[in-house]
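dumping this here so i dont lose it
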């Protein structure tokens, strides 16, 4: 493999996973890639300190996406990357987590290859792995879970998705982008046979400042997200392994608060 710092390797894209937030979770190869950049095209869910690894003179372009509001369409992002590469630049496409886990990295690689250009990929610590580690939540465990699945929990097409068998005893389900639809997700899983008292955790802001890890039961998931005013970025973990985590027990805390309010009346 050609070194990412090879000065002769001009006009290419390096797709880089920035990890789940904390700059300390960048890989050495990700730092190497950033140091080689002429242009950094980055998402919004990265810690801006990561950009400090790029040369001061490197151009920094944000293509941040938020729900229902995209700075650029995916096609426009692809075109932007390709234009800079054709101009001879080393373009680092910096994406939160891992570029091939719900990061549209596959689409960008296809577009660059179709244009006849070189692309390298530097994997990153995925959001699920980073957030779970921060909360001391093992996604698999010899006694509790021998399988783990990752799904996108966006509202569009939720009812048509087949999640049968992805959650339940001995399995862990990790749901990305599910906060907005948390109540619908809980209803869907229970309708598919998952017990209402299955433990769930919501891991908000992962390894970023102000992170929170909260757990409750599946039947309370949507209500807890509303009570706690959870916002993205956050992931939802469903499974018995949740009880092994350091996540704060929000169901019991809420129940005690309600009981105290009743006593005061």
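and the seq i came up w/
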């Amino acid at each position: 493999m050609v070194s990412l710092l090879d000065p002769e390797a001009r006009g290419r894209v390096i797709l880089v996973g920035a990890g789940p937030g904390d700059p300390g979770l960048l890989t050495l190869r990700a730092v190497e890639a950033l140091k080689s950049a002429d242009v950094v095209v980055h998402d919004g869910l990265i810690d801006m300190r990561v950009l400090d690894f790029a040369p001061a003179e490197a151009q920094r372009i944000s293509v941040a996406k938020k729900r229902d509001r995209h700075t650029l369409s995916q096609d426009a992002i692809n075109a932007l990357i390709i234009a800079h590469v054709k101009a001879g630049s080393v373009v680092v496409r910096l994406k939160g987590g891992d570029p091939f886990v719900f990061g549209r990295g596959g689409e960008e690689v296809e577009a660059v290859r179709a244009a006849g250009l070189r692309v390298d990929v530097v994997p990153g610590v995925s959001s699920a792995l980073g957030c779970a580690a921060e909360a001391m939540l093992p996604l698999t465990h010899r006694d509790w879970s021998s399988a783990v699945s990752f799904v996108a929990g966006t509202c569009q097409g939720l009812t048509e998705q087949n999640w049968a068998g992805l959650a339940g005893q001995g399995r862990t389900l990790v749901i990305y982008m599910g906060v907005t639809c948390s109540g619908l997700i809980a209803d869907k899983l229970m309708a598919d046979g998952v017990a209402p008292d299955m433990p769930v955790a919501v891991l908000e802001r992962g390894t970023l400042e102000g992170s929170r890890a909260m757990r409750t039961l599946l039947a309370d998931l949507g209500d807890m997200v509303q009570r706690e005013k959870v916002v993205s970025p956050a992931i939802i973990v469903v499974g018995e392994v949740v009880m092994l985590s350091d996540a704060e027990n929000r169901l019991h805390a809420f129940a005690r608060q309600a009981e105290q309010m009743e006593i005061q009346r």
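DSSP finds seven helices and 13 strands in the chain.
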